[in-house]
Protein 1
Amino acid sequence: MIRKVLVGVSAAAALLALSAGSAQAQTKLKIGTPAAPESPWGQVFKTWKKAVEAKTNNAVSFDFFFNSTQGTESTMVDKMKAGQLDGAALTSVGLGKIDKRLLAIQVPGAVRSWKAVDAVRAAIGPEYDKFLTDKKFVPIAYADVGQAHFLSKGFAVHQPDDLKGKSPWVYSEDPILKTVYAKIGGVNPFPAELMSVLPNIDNGKINCLSIGALAAEMLQWNSKFDNAVDQVNAILVGGLVMSTDSLDKLPGDQKAAVLDTGKSMVTAATGLKNRIRNEDAAAWNRFKSRTGVTIYAPTADDIAKWEVVFKASRDALKAGTFDPGLVSKIESVGAANK
């Protein structure tokens, strides 16, 4: 009898040890993002986590750090390089911190429709992948943020000169909008990181910006503005990347599971691509229907004046910031897919 009890205890102990070993063996990959957990991006990321856990039998999972809790996009890139984060969901500005050429897709006026985004990504995708892999990053998925419109507070933006004397927000490390405002002249752009924008709208230091409606809604900026332009001035995009070193530590089947489910995260019928584009359009319609908001439809003359500024800005960016051949390709493909 005593022997049976001892055998039973030994078996139970072995099971507990095995269970503990399995729990300890789970690899947790740390992913930073500016998105909120309840946002469309956050919800899709949670679905991706479940898919990876299912495909790896819980051997791999994710710890998502939402709401920029791992710092600015620049900080998150530095943390990936230092091994403190395994991956991050970034806007183009954040990707540009890895390699500035990754920001070129947002040169002003070149890509202004989802059709153009898809065509440009197809044309430059292999180059973008190489820019990342050369810097020891793996592109998990390229993703969208939204169609950017000018939003303003207390005044309307019809033509470029309407921004003179105003203080539009720019990302601290974004050379594109800084170049646009320099070409207009007399504009006082206010550089700030994402989480610093709202208080600076409230205190009046930022009185206009170019942003997608869904992002503005998620960040609670939309209610702060009473004027907007019913014209897309840019498509805001980004991507989710991971450190090559982090992925290479996984066994081959687990690494494949992360990569395969990551691609599906975008391309599935309910994935990021369709969801963000549809929800961004719905958010823009909600903004336009708000009481007290004036929506301006630009005239042909307005559009022509903006095109002059955008063209001058692209030429300046070609001359000193981006590879001219890459920008020319983006311009050409974008123009053919308006």
Protein 2
Amino acid sequence: MFHSNVKVIMEERGLTIRGMEAVTGLSTQTVRRARGPMIERCTLDTLARIAAALGVRVKDLFSEEGEPGPEQ
């Protein structure tokens, strides 16, 4: 199981959901999905767009259960 780091990274960068929508062209629903446990259902293209907007690598957007995330 994966744990999303998107919310934490967005907060660190001062980006809101609406800001992410504007930068990535993704819908509110998709951005919300990526911020929580439903990140597992996001496509690689979606994750790549989010990562580019946040200035991180795709693999930084999530951690596997048991791995430390950016907040640890």
Protein 3
Amino acid sequence: MTENIENILRDECNLEKERPIIVGVSGGPDSLCLLDILRQAKYPVIVAHFDHQLRHESAEDARLVEKTASRLMLGCHISGADVRAYAEKEKLSIEEAARNLRYQFLFRLARERNAQAVAVGHTADDQVETILMHFVRGSALSGLKGMSHRSIIKTFDPEIPIVRPLLGMWREETVVYCAANGLRPHYDSSNDSIDFQRNRIRHLLIPALETYNPKFRDAVIRMSQSLKGDYSLLMNMLETAWQETVVEADENSVTFDAAMLSNCSTGLQRNLIKHAMQTLSPNVDVSFSTLDRATTLIHVPASASSRIDLKGGLRMFREAKYFYICTADAELPFNMWPQLTGGTTSVSLPMPCQVELAGGWKFACEQWRLPVLAREQAERNEDPFQVWLDAGNLTKPLRLRIRRQGDQFAPLGLDGHSQKLSDFMVNVKMPQRARDNWPLLCAGDEIIWVPGYRPAHGYRLTEETRSVFYFSITRPRQQIG
């Protein structure tokens, strides 16, 4: 393994020899082996030790690490905290609290020292234990594939990676390495305690499983390598599906095209929802039951009131042609629809004209002098944001305006009968928060077209039509974050 370590450092961990690396050193054989390998490979390293204060001898551990760094003429930073008190305060397990505080220290130091990465001494044994911990919790593929040589943990830093060069070495190999290179690791008595889940897996579960397969640990590593390939394939599919289904994304919300999302397989839907949740809240724990509720919502009949709470303050709901996943305080975008905003309640429309609407939408109108062609276009048209109307009946001034109290509308399909505009908006499931500023095409005070839905019955094209007005609203260019 050590013969190939240079390739792993360069190709798998993507490390360069120009910038420093923060090396987490506990003082055990794994971290000392990692430190010495990096040092001998001529990488600039900075030793970092975090005292968890869980054992009486922990302060002595810190002194030994500092002494080792001094002997090797390396910079060393020591920090610590009362992990047990932090765990009680934050209602975390001791293991999770220790990891949080340790990584916060390592990545804070990496940022301060402009380090290219944080390096930790996880071995193949740690890989097996981690996979089994994920398996016991019922993890998905992302957990069962195990750790990678290089990854970003957004919880701690969105840019600086954590690298694990020793994932291909067994713990026994690091002990042999330390003995062969004159390194003196110290013994951490807490590694024997079965109070911690990882230790129970190490000392109880793995030996029991090795009675069924003596090479059980090798089998888990092979499975991990195979699943990494599957996971990479899934991520490629997810990236393609994300580009196809996501209409807009920012720090507070992700907007999906409902039809495109519904056409994805259930497995892909779950991964898209999970990715959206973790994009908005990197720390959120996404369970299968949460994703199952989300995919159930996708398949229920469209309704303006369809919504669920997900996890960690995130929620998901549908509005007309879109699904939103957003934070509790998100200001949802309005540019999914045409809107008259900025205090504008009415706009006069000369012929021809083009009007800028909110959010990059545009309204245009022009006159067509070939009614036969207009009827052909209207019959083939599937875009609800364009319409051809009988200009002969449009004798009053044209304008766009927002709705008013008591508005009536006689939509195409009701044979000239009118209804309350508010009832029409409810019936066609127009998003509720978009109704107040929805642009309505009017002749005088009469509504002749509700863009995106229907024209008025009395202004439809007929065989007697001799002059035609064409109206359209175009969408802004989509931007996906």
Protein 4
Amino acid sequence: MDETIHQLKKEELMTLKDAAVVIRKPDGKIKVKQATHLVGAGMVGGAF
């Protein structure tokens, strides 16, 4: 699926502002991987 998203973005058929993957580990804990770091994006956006 990751390949499909990258291809759609490359062909400019889709615009992706942010994405996240949520993983539940065997111990029950949840891990979230985010494509865009919100802190950095907020700092850049706030600067303007």
